[in-house]
Amino acid sequence: MSVPRRLSALLVLLATTAVISLPWAVLSAEADLTFGPHEAHYEVTADSRLTLDFGPLGKLLLPAEKHLPAGLGLAIEVGEIPVAGDSDKESPAAASERRTAKDAGPDDPSGGTLDALGGDVASYALLFSSPQTQIDQIVEGLTRDVLTRWALAVAVLSGVGVALAFAFGPIRPGDVWRVLAGRELIAIGVVTVLAFGGLGVAALNRPDPLVPDPAFAGTPLEGGQLTGRLGGVIDTGVKAVEDFAAKNDEFYGGAITDLHAQWDERPLTGNWSARGLVPGPDATSGGIGANVSTFVFGSDLHCNVGMAQVLGEVVSLSYADGYIDGGDITMTGTSAENYCFDVLDQELPEDLPKVVVKGNHDSTETTDHAKSRGWEVLENSRAELAGVTFFGGPDPRRTVFGSGPQLETGLTADQYAQKLRQEACSTDFDIMLIHDARIGAPSLRAGCADYTLSGHWHRRVGPEPSGLGVRYVSSTTGGALADSLTPGPLKMDAELSVIRIDDRTKQPIDMQIITVGPDRKVTVGPWIRFPEPVPLVAQPPEGTSAAA
Predict the structure, then answer these.
(1) Of 18 and 347, which is predicted with more confidence?
(2) What is the mean pLDDT of residues 303-316?
């Protein structure tokens, strides 16, 4: 057989195996993902239903015609809500570090008294408020599995075909016809039996029509049916989730409306940089018009996806060149809470440079997920955003509800602060980004950092001189009040900052604070000038604790 004919035969073989194996790849696809706060196992089915299996509690059945084509369905086996520290990857060191009453501010947004039922209601409400993030996660996970199975099936079947061709030699169409001659009736009979047999099996196994639960009328679950014990409590549960989601959407929708109104009236500035007078972010006249880079800085979001929407609006309105996050995007850093990170990532422009450090309420799972989404993660390393070089590292602690902060690296906060100081003194950078300002204090005292940005304290400090440099501590962007659930309408002020940096000196020029209150009112503050780093006449002793 000539080379062109062999190539054509190979292409025909590949196309045939691809067509044959595609249905198997689709119908056997599965993925381990999350569902709201739960771990979950997803499988593709052929029953035109979305089936949520809650184990002993029962199942939730939804029609899938509007969501999946060709009669396909999806079975979701809902598992446990993961607890921080369950996996080997998340197991902390035996030693633990407890915060004392001298801490500069509240650290644990739950205060260790998180109401479990309220937490579940909030998590499901977040799922309903931003369902597209969950849908994207499911589509991505199942598509990856389908393509993997399809490629494997094509490779195996094609390999078997090629092996048979080498074993038996080329087979001519005439030979095949002679083998089948006289056996047409048998072949037709076999095909007929298989076809009608398959249709009979499908008819016998066809699920009964769904009986819609009236409790779902007017909700995202309309048309669904419940089985098992779950049906006895669903009326109360659905109403609670629906009310929570409605209040959440109403609150942050109103806040965003007020943000746009206040933004048009925001104070402008006439601050001088090293290159001239800095105009407002979109000013077209006045001043020399020095080149500046604009960054939005947030910290301690604590899974408040409503404020993530506000943050995205501020990034858009300020024409930001990058986004800086001081950590604690999640509550405890479990894999299910990656959903909270995904909502924030979705609210920001896809091509916007973004940098983050791990907070004590995040985990290595959180930062690994951030890397997979294209974020720059500071891990005793540098990252450049819009020409500005940031340096920093993760908080060494991991705060787990009910057990306090535990050490992930074997270093206490003081020990890590000294380690970071040594690395800062040998690294060239413009701004240090850390979660807890105390960890950056030794670097400021040693003159190895001119500026530090941080969060953690849930109250704003500065910008103010500190050591030989300047520190700025952001309040909580998620409005994380102690002893209260963070998701939902705000219970305390939430803040984020717009910071402008001189392109030549790489020094912060000024900043503007945007505050969202529990009354949905937005305040855009005046521009605050960053002070220059000024050497101190006397410094604290070198051995002073980072917590001092």
Answers:
(1) 347
(2) 92
- DSSP 8-state code for residue 104: S
**pTM score above 0.70:** no
Q: How far apart are CA 520 and CA 248, in angstroms?
A: 11
End-to-end CA distance of the chain: 84
User: What Å distances lie between residue 94 and 100, 243, 410, CA to CA?
Assistant: 19, 42, 9
Report the Cα 18 to chain-centroid distance in Å.
35
The arithmetic mean of pLDDT across residues 214-226, rounded, is 57
Q: In Å, what is the CA distance from 119 to each residue of 115, 122, 443, 488?
A: 6, 5, 39, 11
The CA distance from 225 to 215, in Å, is 10
Asked if the model's pLDDT at residue 285 lies above 50, the reply is no
Q: What is the rounded distance in angstroms from the CA atom of residue 276 to the CA atom of residue 93? A: 52
Backbone phi and psi for residue 390, each to the nearest 5 degrees, phi listed first: -105, 145
Question: Angle at Cα 397 formed by Cα 391 and Cα 402, nearest 5°?
Answer: 150
CA dist., res. 195 & res. 72, Å (int):
20
Which residues are 437's β-sheet partners?
Answer: none
Decide if pLDDT at 184 tops 60: no
pLDDT band at 421 (very low <50, low <70, confident <90, very high): very high
Report d(CA 300, CA 426) in Å as an integer.
29
Strand partners, 392: 381
Examine residue 508 and say whether the peptide bond preceding it is cis (omega within 30 degrees of 0).
no
Alpha-carbon distance of 63 to 283, in angstroms, equals: 53
**Tokens 């000196």 correspond to what residue?**
505
Instruction: Show Cβ contacts of residue 511 under 8 Å, excluding neighbours closer than 6 positions.
Output: 297, 463, 472, 497, 498, 499, 500, 527, 528, 530
